[in-house]
Amino acid sequence: MSLPADVLIELYRVMFTIRRFEETVSGLFGEGRVPGFTHSYIGMEAVATAFCWPLRETDMMSSTHRGHGHAIAKGLDVSKLTAELYGRSTGVCGGKGGSMHFADFSRGFLGGNGIVAGGLPTAVGAALGRKLDGTDDVVVAFMGEGAVNHGVFHESLNLAAVWEVPLIAVVENNQYTQYSPYEALTAGGNISERARSYGLPEVKVDGQDIAAVYEVAQRAIQRARDGDGPSLIDVETYRFHGHHEGEEQILGVDVYRSLDEIAEQREQRDPVPLARQLAVDAGVTDGTLAAIESEVDSEVEHAVTFAEASPEPELSAALADVYADA
Ligand SMILES: Cc1ncc(C[n+]2csc(CCOP(=O)(O)OP(=O)(O)O)c2C)c(N)n1
Ligand SMILES: [Mg+2]
Q1: Which of 2, 67, 123, 135 has its CA at a distance of 20 to 30 angstroms from the CA of residue 101?
Q2: Per the structure, how many domains does the chain have?
Q3: Residue 165 sits in which domain range?
Q4: Atom of ligand 1 nearest to the CA of 178
């Protein structure tokens, strides 16, 4: 599918923002400036970008432990996101969520989740709610391929299909479940084939090709808006960093995958330069793209300054936000 230049420019802006944000967080984490745990989305930028692009603010999304890219693609404020990672009071959750457990309901972001497959049942419930409310809003549920072997994956998809809810379940198959190759854990070999057992279409897509993911995302989201039911999408992607930041320092760099494999993926399958090339091929000038890159650099630099200048939450705020307003 060939995308128009104006769309490619905006998709590239989102992808580049995720890339620059994650590179920055990786550096800050290494220096001990960002506390807790972070999991990098570097290498997977096209997936969140394509699936969030067609979404409205009122559409919802559930995320994972690797959620920074999902959040940026859904339009969360980069400064408030950075402050959240720093645990500061100006963060999207007042600094109480951190990297893995922040949410922003004003943007339909239902939250990250430290439990593998944990976001999916929440997304099915939200999608049922959209349907019962009579809206044509949809819900996207992101998950890693590690989710497909959990019981709740089957239970959730079964109910989603029976109730015909507007859910788009996106499996980000980045080839590894923590330190295990997915083939070692996943029977049947092909995640997309599982859709058939729920009466859903089988869809598999190259997640490093923004144009290909964009087309699949548009179709699945339209199907959900039209009331034609859920989709399960198998997206082939790759993560360039370790499972979590700091992994290489703790485990070593080639314990469960080879340096050659990582280098080959970086050289040939990096979605950010591939998207940049698509934009150039569509007639976008290098100057236009360089201007976007410099705007994004400033946005991320400003976000770090904002976060580091922000205060930590007051002790008196510890029990606020524990229960939702009735
Ligand atoms: C139910 C559960 N089991 C185990 C873990 C520990 N754990 C955290 S992330 C992870 C791997 C997840 O792999 P995948 O779903 O492929 O997502 P990815 O990290 O590759 O994005 C595991 C096993 C957990 N958080 N929750
Ligand atoms: Mg994985």
Answers
A1: 135
A2: 1
A3: 5-310
A4: 11
Q: Which atom of ligand 1 sits closest to the CA of residue 239?
A: 20
Q: Is residue 322 assigned to a domain?
A: no
Q: Which CATH number goes with the domain that contains 290?
A: 3.40.50.970
Q: Is residue 326 very low, low, confident or very high in pLDDT (cuts 50, 70, 90)?
A: low
Region 29-37: what's the mean pLDDT? 94
Distance 146 CA to ligand 1 centre (A): 6
CA distance 44 to 48: 8
Residues in the ligand 1 pocket, defined by CB under 6 Å: 65-66, 114-116, 144-147, 174, 176-178, 243
144-181 per-position pLDDT tens digit: 999 999 999 999 999 999 999 999 999 999 999 999 99
Q: How far is the CA of 177 from the centre of ligand 2 (A)?
A: 4
Distance from C-alpha of 113 to C-alpha of 29, rounded to nearest angstrom: 20
CA angle, 277 as apex, 301 and 173 as ends, to 5°? 75
User: In angstroms, what is the span from residue 312 Cα to ligand 2's centroid?
Assistant: 33
Spatial CB neighbours of 179, under 8 Å, sequence gap ≥ 6:
243, 251, 255, 256
